[in-house]
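Notes from hallway chat w/ T.B., transcribed later so I don't forget. T.B. wanted the structure written out for a chain they're using in a teaching module, and asked if we could keep both sequence and structure tokens in one place. Agreed to drop them here.
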Amino acid sequence: MSGDSERKTGYLDLPGAEPMPDRPERPKTDRVGAAWKLQVTVGETHILLDIADTVVVGRFVEGDDPHIPVLDLTQFEGFQGGVSRRHASIIRRDDNLFLEDHGSTNGTRINGFQLTPRRQYRLRDGDVVEFSRLRTVFHFVNPE
């Protein structure tokens, strides 16, 4: 091995996986008000989340801070699917939602595009988000 033996984040080597391009806001379809919710679909299960400033996506483990909002993917075989404990975050800023991979071992994709770790990407209603090998679909839910 070379002198640069630091462990580097690996990604699933999927054929055709390209880096995620920047995504401009789509007027009237990407903005989420204070009372909106985020529906995350995993398989046949729908999870309705309050949209906090930051929601950590990963696997909740006993001893973790219970005050940090977490989208816990453990029950969906997150461990077996390669989801890291602190895989990514959903961030609300200026009535928009963004997704940031935390440098997870197996990476994150939006609509098949690989995310660059520690960079925020705009989420859009209907996005298919893969946390490693665990597929989810995101929908913005208007309370009206």
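Follow-up for T.B.: The two ends are 59 Å apart (CA to CA). Might be a good example for the class.
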